[in-house]
């Protein structure tokens, strides 16, 4: 106690060292023969449909996806709400207008490196065009590929997130 | 050079190559085993990607370590920094040279090999690289040298974590070295010899683990401390010191510390197997001493199995027990292990004197069995005390006991004063 070590007050009567050690060793030995829980990742994957041990939550917020209408055009009307609300400032939107006065995005880019995956863009979108997706495999060979342009956002096919609703916390 | 000398040299070189190959490959496989065992104990699978069931993982690790950049911290003492891994690596490998790994082989040959001349060997060949007469003294001496590597690595790194790791390592090694040496004295009392061959020969009646149980226990615990394995891995305590003495090391230099640690684990396991579990001895038979190739092979397998069990045991303990606190470590070493070992030497010496001189028991088996009975009593008593924390307890708990006693005394005093007066 010369250097002021803090010593925990432990119950004196039921102290056990050897028995506790043996008990611990029995436990670890038993665990050696139990079923392994490791997911063998590239072969097994956490998918949306899998409601088993490796289910991906439906409100998981992954990389973005832009939905299209029946003609394959972007649902986005370039209202500018998503770049406005984006806390990470990662959405770049240049609006355009066709001969009928319909607004559409000329440039729509999301920098996935800057994105914080809050899901506000999906929440704020009046046309339900931009979505965060249930997707987690995002590897690329260059940094530049992480700025998703409109074409890239259109071609994504993964399932989209159902965001968490504060009025319905359990998701019912 | 005489033909006998040449024969001896030839055999020694062959054994040397064999032992070092086995040790180095074995150590590589141990790194895999450690990861596998730890994985299984945590319900994981462990490495299983490289090769079948991950068997090539050590090769992949080795390749990675060779290709990695060697870093050298600024203002480190370069010579010592580079020297330190070798200083802990070499003693670790040297130890494997003196442990017999199989029964002696009856080998006779006499042939001429071109310009090299005539090679002759007759009689039993001990299956050990160097059958040194100083036996386990050599192991104790050389294993202590490993601390130079660790302490110098800590000093040369110019890093506070390394320095602390090195300091802890040297303090720990010095403390447990004493208990380790003392725990082996009872073997000396029983066999009268320190050479491994003689100790194995003395265990043909009964393995020393029974008549010298406490010795075995003390040796095992100090062996853990000597190899810096959990629960005594304070020199590298990753939660406090990052990686302790090898924080600043990278690539192959780090690998050498790693290999040294596992080589030490192998040595301690082999020592336990040799000193307390009969070495290569196959129980209940004397066929293993016949000196034929088959007997040698079988005894080698037995030695491997025993060593392997203790290696597994070391890993088992590592993934079961948490790390000691530094003051607990020192208290265990100096206040428990050393007095126990010293007391045990006295008890064993007394018992041996009683059995030999007073009772005059000539039967080796009877002698061993009586010692076993004595050890059973001692073991139960010691374990009971250890288990209850009666031998080792913090000064705080002693204070509690004192206060409790005082409080009890006061309570009775107060009680008497306030007690209703009965007429």
Brief descriptors of the model:
heterodimer; A: 172 residues; alpha+beta; Alpha-Beta Plaits; 3-stranded antiparallel β-sheet; two-stranded antiparallel ribbon; 4 helices; 17% helix; elongated; B: 423 residues; mainly alpha; 14 helices; 4 strands; 66% helix; globular
Q: What report would you give on this structure?
A:
The complex is a heterodimer of chains A (172) and B (423). Chain A has helices spanning 18-31, 81-85, 120-124, 150-155, and strands at residues 64-66, 91-97, 103-111, 130-132, 147-148. By secondary structure, chain A is α+β, with helices and mostly antiparallel strands. Chain A has a domain at 64-155: Alpha-Beta Plaits (2-Layer Sandwich), CATH 3.30.70.3270. In chain A, a hairpin with a 5-residue loop joins strand 2 (91-97) and strand 3 (103-111). By secondary structure, chain B is mostly helical. Chain B has one domain (3-325). Chain B has helices at 3-41, 57-67, 78-94, 135-156, 160-183, 185-191, 196-202, 213-226, 238-241, 251-276, 293-318, 326-358, 364-387, 395-418; strands spanning 102-106, 109-112, 118-121, 124-127. In chain B, the strands form two sheets. A two-stranded antiparallel ribbon of chain B has the order 1-4. In chain B, strands 2-3 form a two-stranded antiparallel ribbon. In chain B, strand 2 and strand 3 form a beta hairpin. In chain B, helix 6 runs parallel beside helix 12. Chain B is globular, with a radius of gyration of 26 Å. The N and C termini of chain B lie far apart (107 Å).
DSSP summary, beta strand count of chain B: 4
pLDDT averaged over residues of chain A:
82
- What is the percent of helical residues of chain A? 10-25%
Please describe the biggest sheet of chain B, giving its number of strands, its sense, and whether it closes into a barrel.
2 strands, antiparallel
CATH topology of the domain at 64-155 in chain A: Alpha-Beta Plaits
Q: If interface size is counted as residues with C-beta under 8 Å from the partner's C-beta, which chains form the largest one?
A: A-B, 26 and 27 residues
Radius of gyration of chain B: 26 Å
Reported CATH architecture of the domain at 64-155 in chain A: 2-Layer Sandwich
Characterize the biggest β-sheet of chain A.
3 strands, antiparallel
Low-confidence stretches of chain B: 419-423
Share in β-strands of chain A: 5-15%
Number of strands of chain A: 5
Given the helix and strand composition of chain B, which structural class is it? mainly alpha
Mean pLDDT of chain B: 82
């Amino acid at each position: 106690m010369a250097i002021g070590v803090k010593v925990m007050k432990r119950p004196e009567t039921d102290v056990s060292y050897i028995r506790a050690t043996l008990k611990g060793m029995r436990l670890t030995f038993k665990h050696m023969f139990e079923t392994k829980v490791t997911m063998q990742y590239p072969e097994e994957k956490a998918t949306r449909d899998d409601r088993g041990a490796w289910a991906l939550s439906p409100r998981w917020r992954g990389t973005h996806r832009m939905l299209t209408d029946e003609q394959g055009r972007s649902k986005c009307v370039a209202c500018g709400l998503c770049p406005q609300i984006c806390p990470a400032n990662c959405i770049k939107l240049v609006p355009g207008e066709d001969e009928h006065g319909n607004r559409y995005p000329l440039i729509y880019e999301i920098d996935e490196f800057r994105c914080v995956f809050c899901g506000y863009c999906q929440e704020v979108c009046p046309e339900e065009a931009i979505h965060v997706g249930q997707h987690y495999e995002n590897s690329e060979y260059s940094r530049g590929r992480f700025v998703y342009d409109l074409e890239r956002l259109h071609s994504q096919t993964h399932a989209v997130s159902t965001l968490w609703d504060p009025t319905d916390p359990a998701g019912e | 050079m005489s033909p006998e000398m040449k024969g001896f040299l030839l055999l020694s070189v062959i054994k040397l190559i064999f032992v070092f190959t086995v040790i180095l490959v074995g150590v590589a496989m141990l790194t895999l085993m450690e990861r596998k065992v730890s994985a299984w104990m945590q319900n994981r699978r462990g490495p299983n990607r490289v090769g079948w069931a991950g068997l090539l993982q050590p090769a992949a690790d080795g390749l990675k370590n060779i290709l990695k950049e060697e870093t050298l911290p600024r203002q480190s003492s370069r010579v010592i920094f580079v020297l330190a891994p070798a200083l802990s690596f070499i003693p670790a490998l040297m130890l494997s040279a003196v442990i017999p790994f199989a029964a002696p082989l009856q080998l006779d040959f006499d042939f001429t090999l071109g310009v090299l001349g005539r090679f002759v060997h007759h009689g039993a060949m001990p299956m050990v690289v160097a059958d040194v007469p100083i036996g386990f003294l050599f192991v104790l001496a050389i294993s202590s040298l490993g601390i130079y590597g660790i302490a110098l690595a800590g000093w040369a790194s110019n890093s506070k974590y390394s320095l602390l790791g090195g300091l802890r390592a040297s303090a720990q090694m010095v403390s447990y070295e004493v208990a380790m040496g003392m725990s082996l004295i009872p073997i000396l009392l029983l066999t009268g010899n320190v050479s491994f061959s003689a100790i194995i020969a003395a265990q043909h009646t009964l393995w020393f683990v029974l008549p010298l149980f406490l010795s075995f226990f003390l040796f095992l615990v100090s062996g853990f401390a000597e190899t810096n394995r959990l629960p005594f891995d304070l020199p590298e305590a990753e939660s406090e010191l990052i990686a302790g003495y090898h924080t600043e090391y990278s690539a192959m230099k780090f690998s050498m510390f790693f290999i040294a640690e596992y080589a030490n684990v192998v040595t301690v396991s082999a020592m336990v197997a040799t000193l307390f579990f009969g070495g290569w001895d196959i129980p209940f038979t004397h066929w293993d001493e016949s000196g034929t190739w088959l007997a040698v092979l079988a005894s080698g397998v037995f030695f491997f199995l025993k060593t392997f069990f203790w290696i597994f045991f070391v890993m088992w303990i590592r993934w079961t027990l948490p790390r000691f606190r530094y003051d607990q470590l020192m208290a265990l070493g100096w206040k428990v292990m050393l007095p126990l070992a010293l007391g045990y030497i006295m008890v064993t010496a007394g018992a041996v004197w009683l059995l030999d001189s007073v009772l005059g028991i000539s039967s080796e088996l009877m002698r061993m069995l009586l010692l076993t009975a004595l050890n059973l009593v001692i073991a139960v008593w010691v374990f009971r005390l250890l288990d209850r924390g009666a031998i080792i307890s913090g000064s705080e708990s002693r204070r509690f006991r004192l206060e409790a006693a005082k409080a009890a005394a006061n309570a009775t005093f107060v009680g008497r004063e306030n007690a209703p007066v009965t007429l």
